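Reply to dn_fold:

You asked what the input looked like. This is it:
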Amino acid sequence: MLLKYLILLSALQPILRCSTSNRNNVCTTFRDYYNPDGNKNCYYDPDTTLEIPAIIQKYANALEIHKVITNDGYILTLFRIPRTNPKGVILLHHSIATHSQIYLWQGNQSLAITLWRNGFDVWLANQRGTSYSDKHVTLSIHDFRYWNFYIQEMGLYDVSAEIKLIREKTNGRKVIFFGHSLGSAIGLVYSSLKVEEAKNYLKSMILLAPPCYFEHVTSVIILFKHFVPVLEAFTNTLRMGSPLIILPFLLPISRVILRLFPAVLFVVSVFTWAFCGYTPAETDPTFFNYDAAIYGNNFSWKTIIHFLQLATLNHRFQMYDYGKERNMKIYGEEIPPLYPIGKISVPTLIVSSDNDSLITQQELSSEAKVHGHWKLSRLNHLDYHIGLHRKEIFMNDLLTFLNNL
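and this is what came back:
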């Protein structure tokens, strides 16, 4: 038996080495991924496997790591790229199934490094449950109870704890909140449920593609709204709080599979179009490489179920629906209450794109509509980070806006 195992292991070694060696791992076209070695259109990018602290140190040579405990016991990690006498202090909140690395994907051209290079004190949040914020004072991520959260807890507890820590470390400076997708929804929850705190602590909010109302959503994800009861029963029966908790064990295997079957890389881009918007002109094969194509991070099933619940409603950005009986016990009424986003008083900029199939509409108060609504084109829900022309379409104007803020 041992001999068979050793023979099998020796046979797999060449394949396993291909996922960890310094072989070319990024190509400029999908076709080149079929033959990356010795290909002039392919190269080795060490950043694809670096951890966040290493990326920040490489491009900024300045890093602070901070921990904060929320009121409900979650231990969060924030990365800071500090700047002396900054133009402003900005907190970046990421989208679902990611962590703060999404703001560092492009290395020296990434949003986080670009903001820091332009004089901002940059803080990167990692939402509860992600691999950098997966600790709790009493619970383990393997406990089903650990995953009993959605945007409500992240808005009420996470953002509040993060903002207070940042103000403590920056001598009470007001913070610019920047959120993408789930991060934007979290910002809306925080600023609508903690109106006075947000007004006193935030200088402004920049909300990128915030998901609130789903009438105009064309993403295939809308098809899953019909399976909310099944999904709830599935997660409760299996006591599985997160769909990606086994991802760290799958990554090495996935990288081997991608080397053996490069066509999967193009399939991933097709899935991205289906979920985020059809933008082939913005698709950059360098971002669908052997390492990034299987990128993902933990999130709670409850968060997904909540968004799917919203997709079944007609223009209601409301709290989690537990069913009539539990709603009465929790909220005192059968229908979950709406988030009072009309009460938000923080000056807010909304950014959306007509090619984003997950785009939704927002209704803010006149006090919050100070900066208006940027309606962009050509970018899908993810292209703000990986689109070929993201700088020309979005980032350059964002820097101008921030410099004038």
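The radius of gyration is 22 Å.
Hope that clears it up.
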